[in-house]
Amino acid sequence: NETRRAAHLSAEQKRRCNLKNGFDMLVVLVPSLTQNPKASKADMLRKTAEFCKKLKAERIQMQKEADILKQEMETLHNSISIIQSQLPETGAPVTRQRVDQMKEMFDDYVKNSTLQNWKFWVFSIIIGPLFDSYNNMVSTASVDDLCRTVLAWLDQHCSLQSLRPIVSKALVHISTATSILTDPKSVRNHAIENVTKKRQSINKHGRS
Q: How many domains is the chain built from?
């Protein structure tokens, strides 16, 4: 009997301790109880229930707002897709003079960057086709034209599906036009010589 009595007292003490810890936790979690920690247990339970109802209502409201935002995003995405589908495949018309000027500036940039770090020449072979498509497609006639044509260019030329063949072609060109596979150290001289001769050739044709 003494053993059972001791076990019963221990269980009761543990139960009361758990209850006390539970109510102490409610005081910490429920704002209205934090301001009145000496409230009766009945009041504590009532205020906790009210707080839970409030949280549930807020959660429902937040879910509704999230659903509305999701619908707005889908509508906006569909509108963008429709607008992009209506854009011309070749982009906005650009003058031959502007294209040539931009190409010349690009070549100068490649030359100067390659002379500083020859590895940029390898990068220029990859971005060259992207620059050409950008140069032919993007219009700077107005801010609206710029935004519209840049988005169209990104959609048509900068997807992973579009970039893969460009990179593959660039790697094939580097492998066949240089001795990178047999003599990697010579690629530096090849890169510098390439941009230098290209600039000289452009200047020669320009003077003629």
A: 2
